[in-house]
Amino acid sequence: MPWLWWLSAACIGVGLVWGFFFTPDDFRQGSTVKIIYLHVPSALIAINAWLMMLVASLIWLVRRHHVSALAAKAAAPVGITMTLIALITGAFWGQPMWGTWWVWDPRLTSVLILFLFYVGYVALWSAIEDPDTAADLTSVLCMVGSVFALLSRYAVLFWNQGLHQGASLSLDAEENVADVFYQPLVLCMFGFGFLFLALVLYRTGTEIRRRRMTTLIRRRAVHA
Amino acid sequence: MPDLGKYADAVLSAYAVSILLLFGIVAISLSSGRRARAALREIEEAQGED
Asked: What ipTM does the predicted assembly reach?
């Protein structure tokens, strides 16, 4: 679906240009507020990618639907990238605002653990030769990691001792960022969402081709 | 270019790293997809010849 790639590029491009060049500095955080257009959308996708993998893994475990297992496998590297962007931009934002690159805050820590789960998930897929066994074991790992995906989303709500602020966007209008930052931020969030969708669809296609290739090679070896 | 003041390094570094990572995952995905497509076509053609 080429239009999905173009839609994501347009949303991210316009959102970032709008946010970077045409929004004012925050009265407390200065120009560092411009990091929000990368940090919040990437963190959003980092968490939701894992939840998408959880749904796909559950479908695999219950229905043994091969494409769902491959979709979960395809989403993991995208999730790693998004988590890495969230962690790195968070560090660049935290250093001037908090005076430290890193702090063992509940949200930061749970996102770091989520990142390690992503890496472990990809490593587990690579380590097991039989695809069905790999799908089974990675699905179980995905269920365990979901605790940290949810924790990284909700940690700021029930753990008050952290440095990390509360949600930037919420259905409760009182918690939202100022209107001037809101529109480019929402555009970037849609852009990251579309990019995630485009990447997962494309990578799932690649995984299906690889699976077909392996099957054909094995079939050929049996006939030879 | 907007005046980013004393936080210019932090903001520009965050953008540079993020854009690099985004382009990286897209490039890796597209190149591995193309390779898989070509390899599958090759195998299917070889099977057709058999």
From this structure: 0.93
B2-5 contacts: CB < 8 A, separation 24 or more?
A: B2/A20, B2/A21, B2/A31, B3/A31, B4/A31, B4/A34, B5/A25, B5/A30, B5/A31
pLDDT in tens, B26-43: 999 999 999 999 999 999
Q: Is residue A6 in a domain?
A: no
Q: Which domain holds residue A104?
A: 34-223
| CB–CB contact B14 A39 (8 Å) | yes
pTM of this prediction exceeds 0.95: no
Instruction: Domain count for chain A, please give it.
Output: 1
CA distance B33 to chain A (A): 5
Residues of A in contact with B40 (CB under 8 A): 209-210, 212-213, 216
